[in-house]
């Protein structure tokens, strides 16, 4: 062809036409529009969802229609189709064929044709031989549509040299040329026998086109479309008319409605109309493929993609009815200037195709030989028939709603008119009234698709999403009654008879299902997610807005609540009130996150004040109560609260003065025994009254002085004794004595300027380094942090006392599950999904657990079956749940979980703790050891469990460890100055008390553990983390600072010596000199160095013992049995080890080690371990002695 890009095979036409186009979203490539893809659904992936499959079908159909035809050539006698005879050197688009869905093009000698998907044929070019039109003689420089009488579309066409051959859907043949007088051939072939023989050789189905032409020859293929031909013609006619309607009416209409009301409704209807047109193009293509025998009947788009097409038609029906309900079609008529009949015909056109599909399926069933395919066809027909009934009901409902709005235009109901609101029932037509109301009272109930409305003097709206309905059994005084529950009101409504009652009940339940997106006959869920705005008359939340979980009229589950006073809450609701775990913002107050009870802060939480103060701890009735931490610009307080005030034992750090107070408080004031350490390091111990130290007490100062008697923080105030020591730093220890002066009598003034009114000054006296009264005015250790342990036990066990170990493990399972659920809830911003809680009221029985095998899951706290994530139990020991159910949902949206919730009324639950992933598999199971007996092999297993538990902040022991470590740090850490050495005794005794109390708790978990004196061996390796040990070490380092500094200086001097020089200096036995060069001796030095890196006393003792064993190995290796180690020759070697190990604060390490071992120290000293530790201490003392430098 000299003038046109064409082909005799139409398989490549669509690909050429779309080669330069990129479809929307880039999801459909050109290859998806090839002739063999478009008739099937091989590209509609099931994982893209129903909407995704519909969208892809629409894009594929749109790709079929989005075609253009381009021509090129140097001679132009109309062949280019540009509307003129101007020669063009570049390729040009043919006029009028853009977006027409061209599927075939062909060219003769000087004319061309284009066939569209909807059966239209266009011809243009030279008409000298009447190959374009027999009625006209002039050439056509633009496409001219081929017309004949009848409704049949063009099936195929071909161009010869000077003629055109056309085959119609009814298989009639038409020829355009000046050689054919009667240009219609039907039934008998006009071709010679040789051509007929070619066709009768059984070519593969679909391999031949209906008609081919070349030169003066034409080849006709005897296809038999049968009953499908009329359905193909009808679908092509629909596609053709719909394209014209959209392009000529809808597109101009949409451009003119941007500023009118409900423009988005009109736009949605027209867009779905266009989507139906696109899918119709796919359906036409599949019908053509089926007619040619290339696909089976079940591959026709209307059948193969039946669900997707019904979904599309359903969406169009919804938009169509929406427009009808707002009287939108008169607006279309007015803007388009079309008659109502034309508009109705256009927009009703897709609905007429529904029954056309059903008729087509009937015809296909009759002609289909395979039974399997007939079954598929029958199934598809049922689906289309079901949708047809659904569509008719929807249109009837819309028409009825429109009549209702027209009648009630001047009533308060008029303001409720909206596109998607439908009238379901009207009590004027189907009687319904309030129970026990006056017989002739004016009552009017209207059920819409989304709400139930009541007109009794004023309009009241009850949204169906937050409405629950139940049938009430007939009684003597009330019959045919229904109970309607809403968030603010409960109604008892009575129908006139049983049939009316059933109709109202079914109508409301169906409306609720539709609003919640549930299947038509599914159970109406009791648990729902919905939004609601409370009225201004609501007693608890006037004007509040809530979105979240509901249960039978009550907010119940995770939700978001915005109150009229500005408060905003996210978290758990229960029985219509804030109850559980959540976060609340309160204007002019701050943000609280934690536990709530009946709308108030209750339990553990964090309150961040707008004044920048922060409280973290326990609440009761909305105020601080129990153990907590209060941080402000002026002070930091850790301790006990009561009624919002500091009350009980606590530690107060004054951020302004730098003073630290540890003692009792009453009504936020220091009252009772306490210890105060000032910024200067001065230590005061005594009784406080009204925030002031008064009465007898003890004061210790950094200048080796102390006072006993009546005093204040400023100075002495009465009878007492002031001991002023001489500046001597070489003597340390609690019982060490120093020399100085003693001032006794009635004293006053300040500590810098003490005045004596009546007393005695004694010079050159010897007295204790520290007062013997120290500790007499402090709080008993058992009273310290008592509220912390009580709050922790209440949080874990609730109000239950005397629980056995099985019941305690049940509580631990609940605690862990709730803690993880809270973490997940916070990480997701309190979103309503995938969170599960236990109630504390769950039975303490663990009968379902294998306590012997150790394989029972911690979460199985009852004997019921498990639930998936989203099943929720309330985390606090709070009030009753609605319906006596133990569940509290946290927002699972799926119908499967809804049905589970509805089936769980009056039952306990079992949620496996493993449903929430845990980092620690050890904590997933209840231990089987230490419960009934405690064998030696059980102790390592118990230690292993406790080690993991104390590190896991979701485990109650981990929470306790975290809190007690914070308390200990607040007492003996965070110093703004060098801590006073006196505190080391308080810290050690307090730490032992804490460990004893923790051990008592562990013994309740593992009843077979030995008595109280074993707590050090079990807990110290676990609890003495680096943080706790560091706090104690700082205090002991302060106590031993002078000696350790002297030791350090002498150690530095020895570092300058070589090994040989140091050995001679230490007078190492000549026979043992080879020992120093032994590898074992180097290992002994390294082993001793590790002592400073350990914080467990037993591990430290073990390293000391190992060091001496390596020393013995070094002797054996270097000198053998010739020389033995004894007390005299061992000391120099140990001195060598100590000096080379370079332990900076060896004195503090040894003193702390001895105190940590406590009662176990004496037992250790009886054996070889005692010998090793004693020798190490002796070496340290020798380095400090004056004899160290003597030759």
TrEMBL record:
UniProt keywords, alphabetically: Guanine-nucleotide releasing factor, Repeat
Entry's Gene Ontology BP terms: endosomal transport
Pfam family, one: DH_ALS2
Domain VPS9: 1052-1191
RCC repeat boundaries on the chain: 67-118, 119-170
Bias-annotated ranges (Basic and acidic residues): 173-184
Listed GO CC annotations: cytoplasm
Annotated region described as Disordered, given as residue ranges: 173-194
UniProt xrefs under InterPro entries: Alsin, Alsin-like_PH, HA_Alsin, MORN, PH-like_dom_sf, RCC1/BLIP-II, Reg_chr_condens, VPS9
A GO MF term: small GTPase binding
Name of the molecule in the record: Putative vacuolar sorting protein 9
Taxonomic source organism: Phlebotomus kandelakii
């Amino acid at each position: 062809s000299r003038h046109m890009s064409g082909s005799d095979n139409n398989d490549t036409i669509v690909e050429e036409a779309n080669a330069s186009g990129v479809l929307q979203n880039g999801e459909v490539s050109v290859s998806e529009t090839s002739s063999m893809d478009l008739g099937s659904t091989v590209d509609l992936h099931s994982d893209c969802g129903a909407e995704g499959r519909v969208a892809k079908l629409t894009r594929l159909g749109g790709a079929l229609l989005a075609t253009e035809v381009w021509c090129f050539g140097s001679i132009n006698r109309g062949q280019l189709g540009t509307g003129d005879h101007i020669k063009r050197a570049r390729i040009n688009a043919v006029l009028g064929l853009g977006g027409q869905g061209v599927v075939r093009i062909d060219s003769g000698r000087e004319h061309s044709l284009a066939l569209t998907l909807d059966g239209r044929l266009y011809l243009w070019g030279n008409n000298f031989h009447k190959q374009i039109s027999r009625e006209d003689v002039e050439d056509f420089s633009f496409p001219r549509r081929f017309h004949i009488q009848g409704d049949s579309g063009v099936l195929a066409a071909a161009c010869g040299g000077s003629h055109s051959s056309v085959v119609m859907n009814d298989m009639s043949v038409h020829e355009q040329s000046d050689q054919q007088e009667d240009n219609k051939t039907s039934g008998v072939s006009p071709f010679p026998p040789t051509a007929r023989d070619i066709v009768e050789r059984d070519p593969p189905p679909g391999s031949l086109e209906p008609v081919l032409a070349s030169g003066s020859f034409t080849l006709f293929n005897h296809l038999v479309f049968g009953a499908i031909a009329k359905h193909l013609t009808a679908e092509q006619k629909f596609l053709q008319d719909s394209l014209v309607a959209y392009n000529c009416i809808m597109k101009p209409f949409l451009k003119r409605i941007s500023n009118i009301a409900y423009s988005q409704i009109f736009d949605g209807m027209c867009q779905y109309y266009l989507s139906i047109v696109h899918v119709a193009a796919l359906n036409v293509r599949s019908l053509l493929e089926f007619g040619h025998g290339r696909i089976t009947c079940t591959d026709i788009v209307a059948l193969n993609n039946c669900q997707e097409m019904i979904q599309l038609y359903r969406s169009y029906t919804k938009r169509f009815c929406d427009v009808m309900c707002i009287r939108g079609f008169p607006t279309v008529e007015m803007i388009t200037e079309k008659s109502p009949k034309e508009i109705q015909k256009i927009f009703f056109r897709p609905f007429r195709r529904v029954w056309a599909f059903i008729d087509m399926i009937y015809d296909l069933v009759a002609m289909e030989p395979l039974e399997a395919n007939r079954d598929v066809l029958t199934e598809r027909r049922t689906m289309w028939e079901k949708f047809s009934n659904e569509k008719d009901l929807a249109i009837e409902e819309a028409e009825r709603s429109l009549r209702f709005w027209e009648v009630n235009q001047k009533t308060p109901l008029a303001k409720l008119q909206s596109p998607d609101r439908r009238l379901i029932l009207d009590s004027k037509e189907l009687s319904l009234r309030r129970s026990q109301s006056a017989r002739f009272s004016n009552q009017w109930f209207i059920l819409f698709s989304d709400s139930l409305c009541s007109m009794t003097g004023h309009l009241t709206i009850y949204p169906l999403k937050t409405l629950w309905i139940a049938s009430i059994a007939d009684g003597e005084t009330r019959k045919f009654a229904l109970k309607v529950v809403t968030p603010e009101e409960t109604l008892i409504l009575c129908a006139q008879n049983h049939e009316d009652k059933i109709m109202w009940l079914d109508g409301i339940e169906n409306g609720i299902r539709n609003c919640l997106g549930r299947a038509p006959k599914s159970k109406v869920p009791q648990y729902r997610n919905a939004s609601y705005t409370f009225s201004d008359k609501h007693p608890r939340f006037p004007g509040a807005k809530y979105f979240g979980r509901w249960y039978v009229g009550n907010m119940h589950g995770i939700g978001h609540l915005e109150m009229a006073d500005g408060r905003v809450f996210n978290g758990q609701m229960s029985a219509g009130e804030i109850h559980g775990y959540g976060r609340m913002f309160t204007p002019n107050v701050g943000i609280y996150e934690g536990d709530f009870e009946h709308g108030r802060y209750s339990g553990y939480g964090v309150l961040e004040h707008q004044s920048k103060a922060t409280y973290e701890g326990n609440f009761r009735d909305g105020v601080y109560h129990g153990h907590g931490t209060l941080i402000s610009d002026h002070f930091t307080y850790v301790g006990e609260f009561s009624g919002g005030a500091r009350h009980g034992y606590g530690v107060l750090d004054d951020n302004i003065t730098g003073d630290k107070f540890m003692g009792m408080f009453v009504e936020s004031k220091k009252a009772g025994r306490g210890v105060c350490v000032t910024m200067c390091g001065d230590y005061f111990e005594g009784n406080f009254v009204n925030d002031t130290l008064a009465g007898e007490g003890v004061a210790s100062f950094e200048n080796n002085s102390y006072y006993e008697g009546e005093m204040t923080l400023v100075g002495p105030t009465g009878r007492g004794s002031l001991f002023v020591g001489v500046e001597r730093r070489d003597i340390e220890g609690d019982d060490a004595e120093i020399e100085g002066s003693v001032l006794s009598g009635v004293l006053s003034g300040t500590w810098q300027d003490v005045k004596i009114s009546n007393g005695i000054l004694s010079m050159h006296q010897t007295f204790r380094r520290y007062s013997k009264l120290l500790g007499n005015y402090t709080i008993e250790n058992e009273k310290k942090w008592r509220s912390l342990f009580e709050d922790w036990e209440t949080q874990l066990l609730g109000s239950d006392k005397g629980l056995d170990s099985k019941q305690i493990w049940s509580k631990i399972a609940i605690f862990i599950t709730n803690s993880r659920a809270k973490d997940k809830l916070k990480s997701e911003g309190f979103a309503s999904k995938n969170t599960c809680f236990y109630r504390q009221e769950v039975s303490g029985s663990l009968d379902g657990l294998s306590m012997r095998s150790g394989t029972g899951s911690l979460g199985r706290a009852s004997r019921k079956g498990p639930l998936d994530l989203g099943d929720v139990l309330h985390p606090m020991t709070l009030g009753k749940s609605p319906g006596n159910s133990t569940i509290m949902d946290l927002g699972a949206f799926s119908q499967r979980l809804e049905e589970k919730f509805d089936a769980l009324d009056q039952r306990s639950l079992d949620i496996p703790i493993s449903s929430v992933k845990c980092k620690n598999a050890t904590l997933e199971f209840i231990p089987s050891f230490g419960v009934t007996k405690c064998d030696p092999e059980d102790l390592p297993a118990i230690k292993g469990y406790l080690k993991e538990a104390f590190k896991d902040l979701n485990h109650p022991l981990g929470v306790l460890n975290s809190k007690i470590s914070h308390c200990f740090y607040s007492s003996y850490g965070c110093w703004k100055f060098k801590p006073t050495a006196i505190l080391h005794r308080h810290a050690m005794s307090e730490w032992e008390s804490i460990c004893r109390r923790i051990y008592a708790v562990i013994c309740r978990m593992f009843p077979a553990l030995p008595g109280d004196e074993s707590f050090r061996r079990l807990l110290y390796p676990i609890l003495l983390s680096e943080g706790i040990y560091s706090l104690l070490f700082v205090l002991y380092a302060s106590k031993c600072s002078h000696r350790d500094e002297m030791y350090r200086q002498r150690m530095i001097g020895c570092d300058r010596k070589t090994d040989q020089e140091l050995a001679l200096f230490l007078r190492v036995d000549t026979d043992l000199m080879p020992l120093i060069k032994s590898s074992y001796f180097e290992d002994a030095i390294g082993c001793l160095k590790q002592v400073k890196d350990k914080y467990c006393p037993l591990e430290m003792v073990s390293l000391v013992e190992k060091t001496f064993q390596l020393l013995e190995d070094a002797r054996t290796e270097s000198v053998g049995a010739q020389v033995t180690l004894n007390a005299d020759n061992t000391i120099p070697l140990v001195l060598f080890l100590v000096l080379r190990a370079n332990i900076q604060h060896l004195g503090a390490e040894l003193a702390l080690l001895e105190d940590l071992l406590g009662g176990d120290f004496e037992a250790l000293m009886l054996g070889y371990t005692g010998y090793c530790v004693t020798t190490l201490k002796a070496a340290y003392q020798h380095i400090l002695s004056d004899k160290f430098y003597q030759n």
